[in-house]
Write the structure tokens for this entry.
Amino acid sequence: MAKSNGAKGETTTQDVVTNTEDTDTVQDAPAPAESSQDIDEILNSLKALLSSVEKLQKVRQEVGDIKPLVQRMLDGELLAGEELELLKTGVSGLVRLVRAYGDHQTALAKAQPARTLLDEILK
């Protein structure tokens, strides 16, 4: 039995060891199978990831390859005509691209539990 020093809420080393041993026994038990609600959430996260990938690719195509134009502008070169219009369209599209990229990263993080589920199912 553990000794108490008179202060409430304090435990001795023996109590901690005993509680740790009890916890280890519980942790060794096999984890319950995924519930159907969890599986639905995982599959919905995969759908959301697919949607975010499609959106990201669409925005990338709309923005086009404006990197050379942005670099030229940042180097101090003056752009005119069609190049300037492409740059304007591309820069305004960059905001959408950054937003789509952020959405994709969020969806990717949420979909990570699908790896375990797919490994289990597709053995």
User: Anything to note?
Assistant: The mean pLDDT is 78.
